[in-house]
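Reviewers of the previous submission asked for a worked example of the structure-prediction workflow described in the proposal, so we include one complete record here. The input consisted solely of the amino acid sequence. No template or homolog information was supplied to the procedure at any stage.
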Amino acid sequence: MTTVPTRTNEEWLAALQTTGPEQTQALEELRDYLLRAVYVYLSRHRSDLTHFDRDEIQQLAEDWAQEALLTILAKLDTFRGDSRFTTWAYRVVINLAASELRRRRWANLSLEGLTESDDDEDGMSFEFAQEDGSVSPEAALQQRHVWDTLRHIIDQDLTERQRSVLVGSLVEGKPVEVLAEQLNTNPNKVYKIMHDARKKLKQRLADYNLNEESVLQVFAGV
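From that input alone, the workflow returned the following structure tokens.
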């Protein structure tokens, strides 16, 4: 069980918003707490990470604990005190880790293959039905159905420029400026292309009785 630092909400806010040794001590306590919390989450509650060794889990935990710490400091003024400060901080780091793992899983779907010619029998490899048992046969079947639907929509209903922007931004993480340069256009037009692509994607998903939330739930593993 993760040890919770013994400070009141008021003491946490006061210490983190001051300067000097008191703030340094509070930052160390909070970071240690976040690190322990996210390490337990990754090592005990994420079956999709069973193939990671201890050092890899530790590195992920350290990275996300530090990122969560910065997020918490930037959002101290949004803490309303409805719960314990450490409970709020716990949610921040766990939500961050879950979101990042979800993003990485989406990236592993190799969406960039949709903008290229199909060379294999299925059009592209299907990688997320994991052989290590972290995904059940039923879940893998559901993933395959949703993925095939997404692939069909992106391939058949989006323009080439919409596919390039959607994949480049959401999967490959390219900045808008880079996408604009690649498409020989300006950032404002890239935003418009992205808006149109996502609107079309939502419309077509609705035709299949799917929405963004349900799609994410299929692949989230949380």
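Residues 103 and 171 are 8 Å apart (CA to CA). We consider this example representative of the routine output the project will generate in years two and three.
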